[in-house]
Amino acid sequence: MTADLKVIGQDLFIAVTGGDNPHIGTVTTLTKDSELQTVRFPSHDGRLHKDDVLAIRIGKIIQADLPGSCTITAGVHVNHISKKQIMVSALMAKHLGEQIKAWLHETDFKVEKPIYYSNQEKPS
């Protein structure tokens, strides 16, 4: 299982993938001050993917340290996964979350703030 990170301004995009058939099974969004929200996509057999279990574990670990918004896609499929492998995947997600949290503490997210029109201004 891997987590690929992309910084977009002060926001963070994380793609969690792995196993025999990596995919995008769920999308989880969060900020420091908002609840996690998840969309689960249908799999090939019509059931909804359960990859949000991994994304939520990571999201809860990093949430307090987020500089902006965060979107986590998750898609890990291991053919004929065992119960032990499922338990280990939760530990792997926890370790990824801890690594991302440490990275967040070391990363400078200083970007210029966007400029908006005031209530009295309009685009020309």
Automatic annotation (TrEMBL):
Domain of life the protein comes from: Bacteria
Domain Prenylated flavin chaperone LpdD-like as annotated: residue spans: 2-104
Classification via InterPro entries: LpdD_chaperone-like
Organism of derivation: Companilactobacillus mindensis DSM 14500
Any Pfam family hit: PAC_bac
Protein name: Prenylated flavin chaperone LpdD-like domain-containing protein
